[in-house]
Amino acid sequence: MKRVLFVCLGNICRSPSAEGMFRKIVRERGYEEVIEIDSAGTGDWHIGHSPDHRAQEAATRRGVDLSDLRARQVSNEDMIHYDLILVMDRRNRADVSSMSQPEYQHKIRYLLEYSEQYEELEIPDPYYGGVHGFDVVLDMIEESCERLLDSIIKS
Ligand code: 4NP
Fold it and tell me: Tens of pLDDT along 64-108?
């Protein structure tokens, strides 16, 4: 069993999109029995909220339904439970890192580290941008989630 947690700031845009996209890829490739997937936010503003409607619409266009997801805040227990804690940007990384014991720091990685297509490390926050931002973010998430699964299968 491999346990994967996606983390962003609000848990209403990037990390639920990654959770939904990774669930779809994992299911299509037949690994749903052996990979546990969740997402959380470092902030508490949106606890209990559904994903942003723009994120839901962009995901729906790619066959991913985010409507059942509800935002939650990342916890100290998550650092123990999950094998991989995949952050979207430097701020997420700093926040999660400050919550983690030294022995868990190695679990924290940028999701984009798994990409073979994108050189940068950060998936930008689309919250204050236009609709186009959500498709750009989903492109990044989709490709890195495919490579993430490749990496998990190989390990
Ligand atoms: P996310 O986007 O971290 O990708 O979920 C954000 C959502 C909400 C806020 C910031 C980022 N906010 O400040 O409310």
Answer: 999 999 999 999 999 999 999 999 999 999 999 999 999 999 999
12 CA distance to ligand 1 centroid (A)? 6
CA distances to 10, 47, 72, 75 from 50, rounded to whole Å, are 11, 9, 10, 19
**Looking only at Cα atoms, what is the longest distance across the chain?**
41
Residue type, 21: M
Is the CB–ligand 1 distance for residue 125 below 6 Å?
Answer: yes
Say if CB 144 and CB 114 are below 8 A apart: yes
DSSP string covering 102-126, please?
A: GGGGGGEEEGGGG-SS---S-----
Please determine, for residue 137, whether its predicted confidence score (pLDDT) is greater than 70. Answer: yes
Task: Determine whether the shortest distance from the Cβ of 107 to ligand 1 is under 6 A.
Answer: no
Predicted model pTM: 0.98
8 Å CB contact between 14 and 42: no
Instruction: State both tokens at 114.
Output: 């798994």
- Ligand 1 in contact with 45 (CB < 6 A)? yes
